[in-house]
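Structure first, sequence second, as always.
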């Protein structure tokens, strides 16, 4: 009998990044707290950040009656995005909670309210979960979404989803490079350079990653999830999966750099991901919602604008829109739009 070789990222204690990078500093939850409260970095305080992230009223009519021939995305906040295309309603990393924390009164507090409430969502077909960190995997939000949508999540996370009341017949766990089909869309689970944990004792026990979706008409969508920049990883992914019509790419939570660089990309590195993966257009996520790190909360979109200019990326091709904003993009076979649509340059999130 031929023995199946265990993938390299499967270890005796959990999982490991593909092409692991050396850590510039020894990282742990306790060291993070020490840097957060006793380090030299000036961290923003959530109570002083209200109003710093622009807000826009969602296009509720379009959300409830989407045109299946064009992509429309509504940024709800952080990594939570409503993606609508090809007749499907897809939600990424649903977090509607007031805190990204296991506690009700302690932990990163939301300073920008969600652009949509759960009650304002259309009927969901698919929910994509990238990993188990509290700012991406909120049990109360998932419990309210319930068993109606189909959930896709990385290996070993199903038991966590079941704590939210989602039954095992409503989700699929995926390993990196696994594929599945749902309602005519092919879902591919791809690596990111990150890690997982819900406590101080379960680091990397559950898998993490991103997703590439290929729709029936060939339109290709990429939800990066959380990631640090890893040239070897993304060069490999670009060769294997590159050529993406639209992506959700993180741009925030990157300072102090020595501590965060292997877990979160900065705006310049987000542009590198866009280029290496061949992403034609993108929306910036993972900023403007929670104070998770030390950079000023309004810095990521400004740095993104400069990075796009330096890279020759056109205005409107990598946008950082207001929370709640609904934006529209041509589908695979759609004719160019003749009516005007609001497309802001990356230089301005307003």
């Amino acid at each position: 009998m031929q023995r199946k070789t265990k993938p390299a990222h499967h270890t005796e204690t959990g999982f490991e990044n593909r092409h692991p990078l050396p850590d510039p500093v020894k990282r742990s939850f306790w060291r993070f707290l020490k840097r957060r409260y006793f380090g030299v970095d000036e961290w923003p305080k959530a109570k002083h950040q209200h109003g710093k992230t622009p807000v826009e009223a969602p296009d509720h009519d379009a959300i409830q009656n989407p045109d299946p021939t064009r992509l429309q995305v509504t940024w709800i906040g952080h990594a939570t995005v409503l993606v609508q295309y090809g007749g499907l309603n897809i939600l990424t990393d649903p977090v509607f909670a007031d805190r990204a924390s296991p506690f009700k009164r302690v932990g990163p507090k939301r300073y920008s309210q969600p652009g949509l409430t759960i009650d304002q969502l259309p009927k969901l077909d698919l929910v994509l979960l990238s990993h188990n960190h509290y700012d991406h995997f909120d049990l109360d939000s998932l419990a309210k979404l319930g068993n109606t949508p189909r959930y896709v999540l990385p290996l070993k996370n199903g038991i966590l989803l079941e704590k939210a009341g989602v039954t095992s017949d409503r989700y699929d766990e995926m390993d990196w490079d696994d594929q599945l089909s749902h309602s005519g869309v092919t879902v591919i689970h791809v690596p990111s350079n990150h890690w997982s944990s819900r406590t101080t004792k379960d680091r990397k026990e559950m898998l993490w990653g991103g997703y590439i979706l290929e729709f029936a008409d060939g339109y290709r969508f990429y939800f990066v999830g959380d990631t640090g920049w890893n040239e070897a990883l993304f060069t490999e992914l670009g060769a294997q999966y590159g050529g993406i019509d639209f992506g959700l790419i993180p741009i925030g939570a990157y300072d102090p750099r020595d501590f965060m660089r292997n877990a979160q990309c900065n705006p310049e590195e987000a542009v590198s991901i866009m280029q290496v993966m061949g992403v034609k257009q993108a929306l910036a996520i993972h900023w403007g919602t929670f104070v998770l790190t030390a950079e000023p909360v309004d810095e990521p979109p400004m740095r993104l604008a400069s990075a796009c200019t330096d890279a020759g990326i056109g205005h409107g091709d990598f946008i950082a829109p207001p929370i709640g904003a609904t934006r529209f993009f041509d589908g695979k076979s759609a004719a160019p739009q003749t009516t005007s649509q609001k497309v802001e340059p990356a230089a301005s999130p307003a």
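Margin note: Residues 335-343, 345-350 have pLDDT under 50 and may be disordered.
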